[in-house]
Amino acid sequence: MPLLTEVVGSLPRPAYLQAAYADYDAGKISKEDLVKAQDEAAEDSVTKMAATGETLVTDGEQRASSFATYPIIDTLGGAGLASNLAADGQYFAIFDDGHHRQLPRLTSGPFKYKTYAYENLKKSMPYAKGHGMKQAVIAPNMLYLLYPLNGEVGGYPKQQFVEDLVAECEKDIRGCFEAGAKRVSIDFTEGRLTAKNDPRNPWTGADLLRTFVDLNNRVLAKFLPEERVNIGIHTCPGGDCDSVHSGEVPYSNLLPSLFDMNAGYFLIQLASEKDKSSVYTQIGKHIRRDANGVKQVAFIGTTNPLNPDIETPEMVAADLEEAVKCGIPKDQLGATDDCGFSPFSIDVKPKHGSPDFAREIAMKKIAARVQGARMASEKLGI
Asked: For residues 261 and 26, what is the distance between their CA atoms, to the nearest angstrom?
């Protein structure tokens, strides 16, 4: 069986959709107008991704405010914020270019999703015309940050919040499979952030990595091994406005804890990593052949969504061949992109010049990755 490939999830929203989000927030257009633009962008995303040769496609998360906030808010401008959330929560991340993304703050219980990823998947499934689809969902640990870092929400202890959070995440994943998703990946971009210790963002110095690993495992424990084979974990140092938030944090701070999670596969940023071979070696050392009943597979990043330069299939193949040389078993190796191509709905992709051009580049990168994985499979005798 050739090396598997998989996209992370998001694509840049076209300029007309980003304008529609802004106009909706400003009260210039109706919700129906926004939905029409979202539908158009979602259909275009599915159709063009299918043409790249990718095995499983997505709608590029065109209907989501962001990869992190789709369950709780309609737009990044604040529309649709639930009544038990306030806008003044913790920063999710402060990026290297100086911009930040902020989460809401939970003010009362119970915690419930407003929107589930499977609801958007159901809307986009007809566009695939029989092509397999996957769906990305947010990790429970990102939403864990809605609860104040210190203290408690009155009448709603953190323990009860965590139980509700786990239940909602499980519901989101199950709903995706029931809607027809072949695979579901959990976005865990905050993994390396747990070791950044940024004084501007206190949670990054609160030693939360083990808490987050355990929280993800509580969700994964709800699924049988034959289900977890198709549940993945994505990790990266961020990818917003062509900038990162934790690229300086060594992978050794995240590994081997990453593989302590009992997921079937991992989508791991590596194309933009300075010392890829060292990380390949660490992955080969720590990846498990039996993670509570499933063999783990590492999909290594072979394309960089933050850089408009398009990788060649030969470059992709070379990375995969090097990964095998460094100790990742062939039957536990796959190829992915470093990150979603645009995890937030408002992202002008400054290094690309425009989100529309970035969409074109994304499709070419995906196609190159698919071709490169085929080349590597032939060379490796897979």
From this structure: 42
